[in-house]
Design brief:
With about 1450 residues, this protein is mainly alpha-helical.
Amino acid sequence: MYRAIDSFPRWRSYFYFITLIFFLAWLVKNVFIAVIIETFAEIRVQFQQMWGSRSSTTSTATTQMFHEDAAGGWQLVAVDVNKPQGRAPACLQKMMRSSVFHMFILSMVAVDVIVAASNYYKGENFKRQYDEFYLAEVAFTVLFDLEALLKIWCLGFTGYISSSLHKFELLLVIGTTLHIYPDLYHSQFTYFQVLRVVRLIKISPALEDFVYKIFGPGKKLGSLVVFTASLLIVMSAISLQMFCFVEELDRFTTFPRAFMSMFQILTQEGWVDVMDQTLNAVGHMWAPVVAIYFILYHLFATLILLSLFVAVILDNLELDEDLKKLKQLKQSEANADTKEKLPLRLRIFEKFPNRPQMVKISKLPSDFTVPKIRESFMKQFIDRQQQDTSCLLRRLPSASSSSCDHSKRSGIEENKYIDQKLRKSVFSIRARNLLEKETAINKILRACTRQRMLSGSFEGQPAKERSILSVQHHIRQERRSLRHGSNSQRISRGKSLETLTQDHSNTVRYRNAQREDSEIKMIQEKKEQAEMKRKVQEEELRENHPYFDKPLFIVGREHRFRNFCRVVVRARFNASKTDPVTGAVKNTKYHQLYDLLGLVTYLDWVMIIVTICSCISMMFESPFRRVMHAPTLQIAEYVFVIFMSIELNLKIMADGLFFTPTAVIRDFGGVMDIFIYLVSLIFLCWMPQNVPAKSGAQLLMVLRCLRPLRIFKLVPQMRKVVRELFSGFKEIFLVSILLLTLMLVFASFGVQLFAGKLAKCNDPHIISREDCHGIFRINVSVSKNLNLKLRPGEKKPGFWVPRVWANPRNFNFDNVGNAMLALFEVLSLKGWVEVRDVIIHRVGPIHGIYIHVFVFLGCMIGLTLFVGVVIANFNENKGTALLTVDQRRWEDLKSRLKIAQPLHLPPRPDNDGFRAKMYDITQHPFFKRTIAVLVLAQSVLLSVKWDAADPVTVPLATMSVVFTFIFVLEVTMKIIAMSPSGFWQSRRNRYDLLVTSLGVIWVILHFALLNAYTYMMGACVIVFRFFSICGKHVTLKMLLLTVVVSMYKSFFIIVGMFLLLLCYAFAGVVLFGTVKYGENINRHANFSSAGKAITVLFRIVTGEDWNKIMHDCMVQPPFCTPDNSTYWKTDCGNYAGALMYFCSFYVIIAYIMLNLLVAIIVENFSLFYSTEEDQLLSYNDLRHFQIIWNMVDDKREGVIPTFRVKFLLRLLRGRLEVDLDKDKLLFKHMCYEMERLHNGGDVTFHDVLSMLSYRSVDIRKSLQLEELLAREQLEYTIEEEVAKQTIRMWLKKCLKRIRAKQQQSCSIIHSLRESQQQELSRFLNPPSIETTQPSEDMNAINQDNSAQPETSSQQQLLSPTLSDRGGYRQDSADAGKPQRKFGQWRLPSAPKPISHSVSSVNLRFGGRSTMKSVVCKMNPMSDAASCGSEVKKWWTRQLTVESDESGEDLLDI
């Protein structure tokens, strides 16, 4: 990048390389980690039996028992019942098991570690064998040997070695015993001494549990380590055989050298040097093959192998499904407990006596003095009096309808009045049995639901595969039927034993689910009670303590000035418009901009702008242009302090400072605000003119650089980022302890082996220290790779320097501090090759194993631990860590549905004209593939450099012009096929149109100018065109969506990282702005200004030589010129400041913030990467829904009326299909849900899709606790309302048919009278023939009745009522009815009254059903039992969907 800055414009180099690092190194590279994690999670299921369960913490041979601990509590302790006991006395065994003995041994281990860490290099002439450290080591070794012998005596040797921990202790005892032998002291046996620090893990149970989670199930991690070692051995052997014959290449001459080279490529440190040296040695012919070989190995090792370690660690941190559900309940319960308590700053008022606010009642006639009464009591009394007054006012117009009349007299009178009306009514029986009928109907509802699900298919219909909506609907109906216990005995009759057993198991399962429901509801009630208790506590404190909730104990609670401050502080932009009828929020055109404006209050927006302006002003500060001596920079300082003073005063007056519920200082953000304000105020008042280095004034200037952190407090999303960083501090702290332990072990070993051995004379010709004196001449090279040709007798340029015997410049192992600093730099994989080469060259090749083992453990396990823990904490903060597999799929589905949009594809033209043919051509897959191939072909043209002076560039540009015209033709065809408005609907089409327009502009400029700028523009157009291919393939589109969504969701994390970087840049200008140039501090990389400091810090974020920059900033006299008056006059660095500055920045940014980006990418990748088996709704389902939505939403507005949802649901097919024959009730529920949630208004694309998603999943498994309760309550309400609507509509239809039959009966009675007169006349005057011709009226009636053939079928669909019996009893009166035979009427044997005979005559024109209605109307007191049975039969037919589909009884759909 620095070379590009020297050759090209600065902005071009910065833009190119920064975007390259951001997209490739931070986003695209981390996608590989997401791919490996998701793939590993799938593969793990296949190896579940080999790896075992995650929760196997104790072996099968152990049991657990209660044991009293030192604090007097009880805890479960694992006890091995098969462990043999030793021969030691009982007192020794008791002492060995006591906690005192355990803590004594651990304290001795800690003392031993401290003594070993205190060792340092004392000089060449110091005798090292018998110093105080050696004697201490002998004493500790004897002590731990005695401990091991005591445990063997107490437990027996078999019982002792049965524990893995005891085996490790025995190994340490044997190794350290050999280590204290003088000849083996300071040898490889030192490892056993320093490994004692591992025993300190037992001190912290949390650390021990964390270590067991990571390393306990060692099969996975151990297998991966073995795989990595095998890969290194195999690749080293292959490389040895390939390059051992190459001359002038010493990296692959032996197997150890080949192994070190391949391991260096694995760690990414200097792997380019290995490849370049090999390419130069093999020549130009084989250089491409060798380059591909090394690049493929590097990509596999860095992108896949390291990601596997992250996947294994994440899998070890994963919990079982049952534990997740249990922890969800426990976490909800814990949250309820925490909400119950007030913060400590408010509970302090409870320590003071109660002094409630009292008022004195005046103007009360009395002879006695009236005592003071609580103000809150008087307010309550006044409120009740007002309520009673309003109640009386409402009671005046109608006493019977008053809600305040609680007397029993009106109720009794009303009941008597209703009773009298019912007795007078003809339908009194129907009204009295209404409640029993409703109860019976509800029972039949549940019974028939159970019968439907047990039947599986319906008679007369072919069985077909059910949709997921139908399956989930049946599952819910079954649960509710079992939960309510609906007629289980009646249902179970006639079933086999197996069916009864299955029903019993289902009942038990759903009883457990009901028990879980009760637990969830109990937790929810507990939360509500906790909130109520907290509110009650606040009210009690507000009532009993007059200074509670008073800002600064001065301003009153309801003072006008405080109310004014509240209005100013809490005022914010709100552009959401609500519908006055439905109350729904209307989406405005610029709702995203309005949401951004309403993100914070107006006051916070003002302070954000002021803070940004102040930070911009600080960007212009430098050691040569200081704010103390620049009046223009002081203006921004004064403005910031004045505005922040006003802001804090308003907030303190409105919400209080500390002892109020909404105080300014109620969290860390408030403390930071006050701290930044005080620092700025002190600096503004002081404004020191001379600032010495390492003084309090310089420290104040460094603290002033924290000003950009104010934005973290002002923006809510930035506060969320801070919570995500610090909420997982416990796990990050444990990982840091493990890494520090690892570094301490290797640092202690390095001190004892390498202390004083890494020093060397700066003259390469001098070997011994005795000869390292005097001066020598050192040559100077202009460039590392430039060999100057000298004339005969001419010497290279150089100068004379004194000889010095010294350690390497950047590291040494003379004490534990320097050794840990060197190992920390090695842990970041920077500079470890230099450390390795120095150790091998000055100590010996065998000691190269030391640094390789540390790099492998630190890189493969230590750094991946940070990645895994940060991802796990991010998931826990997002609420996904404790989610089960089904719940996580549901969250992914909801996130995916938010991204889904309606298809921006217009429908095909109706006619078969030219537009229709164009539409078919442009939508054909072959056409799309051809365009994709052409895009790739045009991109290949950039493989050759486009230089204006090169003749090859002209034909390449000409070919690009041809491709551009083809793409213009493509866009034109699409515009013709879709119309301009339809083409503009798609974002992809807009992008294609933009790129094509740029291509046309380039073609014009190219033929007009034909210079270097037009060639560069043409290359940019081709690059823009290449990105359009990502949306034309499913996999590429998935990866592109992952990157885009990750950028969108990580916006505030990136902003937070930039703010941290800005703070460190301001501090770097103050601390290292005048440091002299060194190895890496130069004219490009320095801290002379904030802009250059940001560039250097961005380079450090990538890890490029950050340790060398740190050592350049540590320069001390005599290598620099000190000045004690002012810091800007010296060119020395700050050793302690550089150490804290660079190490903290690298840990926060590289180990935590960048890993948050990895966590976001992993989360977003899981949204788009899932197999068809894992997806609740597949891509095909979503695509089908988008197509159907486009058919219904013909105006392409994204919303449709509620009544159109019915047509949309009817058109759905496949897994989202709603079968009206089987799931008519589900169809009603879905339609009513849309009407209820949107009040009959318009519904959006996402509203319908969300409803379908809820209906397509098992909510008991997929939804979390609160969401599950809300959803079940909504579905219960919908079912009740739909049932009420069904009954209401059925009753209305029955009433309509009854009225129609009454009208018809009147006409029938009239016709009966006429026919009776004719029959009587015929009876009195018998005709000469046997048969009689029907009259014209009867023929007309017959024609009318024959014109209604559906009367019988419609009667089957109608629900029977008490006035319409379905069956009739045959009594003795049937024998007296007239019978017709051969067209002749026969008289009954005994004459009856005419009215009875007429009412019982079975007329041929009336039909059976008509006569039933007449008889029922003339006999209203029918049999209630018969009517109840017919009601049951009707409901059974309706709910099992056995009736005709054309019936309109249930719902007009």
